[in-house]
Amino acid sequence: MGGAGRIRYGSPGRPIRAACYLAASMTRRGVDARFLIYPDEGHGLEDPHNQRDLIDRAAAWIDARCA
After folding, report:
1. 5: CB partners within 8 A, 6+ apart
2. pLDDT exceeds cutoff 60 at 2
3. What separation in angstroms does the CA of 3 have from each of 29, 31, 32, 38?
4. CB within 8 A of 67, min separation 6: which ones?
5. What is the DSSP string of the chain?
6. What is the pLDDT of residues 10-65, one digit of tens each?
7. Rounded Cα distance, 57 and 17, in Å
């Protein structure tokens, strides 16, 4: 793997350790990855503050690579 990556993870009933393992694996392979945990959120983000945060981060990620 190379380059940059984003993982959006969150499914009820799925252990967070799987996402932690994936994020750690990407980091070990040199992928510019960010691992975010939004407490009390499931598969979709319900809190408007969290939604805005994710949108802002995704937009910044795209801008940095398409500028």
Report:
1. 26, 31, 32, 33
2. no
3. 10, 5, 6, 24
4. none
5. --SEEE-----TTS-HHHHHHHHHHHHHTT-EEE----TT--SS--SHHHHHHHHHHHHHHHHHHH-
6. 555 667 788 888 889 999 999 888 888 888 887 788 999 999 999 999 999 889 88
7. 23
